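Allow me, if you will, to draw on your knowledge of protein folds for a short while. A protein sequence and the structure tokens that stand for its backbone fold form the material at issue. I would ask you to consider whether the tokens describe a fold that such a sequence might reasonably adopt. Thank you for your consideration; the sequence and its tokens are set out here:
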Amino acid sequence: MVSVFAIRNFKFLGFTLGKNGKGVYVRVHGKSWKKMKSKLKELSSRRSCQSIRPSLKKIERYMRGWLNYYGIADMKNKIDDLNSWLYHRIRMCIWKQWKLPKTKKRNLMKLGIPEYFAHQAANSRRKYWYVSGMGAVNRALTKERLINSGFYDLATAYQSVHVNY
């Protein structure tokens, strides 16, 4: 008979079980994590998010189920990283959705960005991913604004699920 802890990266029902200095831990297995991230990538791709609200609903439905299943695992730091990555992806989708430079500039100015910075971001020749990480776009499309428009914040959802265990 072999101990579960003797096998490195022992996978059981999508979890990794292990032992460290603090005791026994339960984490999400790497394959399960990659599968979830690729699904999120598919749900938030530039190709499929012409209308952002249905995409946000699909992401929320998928992640609610995923977090309810994997909520017992220790993954706070990974969830924070995933959350910021997903915010960036959603900003990228919104940026693409605005299409024309004049629309981008107008929408940034509506969201409180000064005209100079709005003009600079709107007329940038850089790709969507780069521009969606710029300061003007980040200040315009803050976490709070995205959450109010229907974004499912993974960190708060994980905290509410993980506290119960």
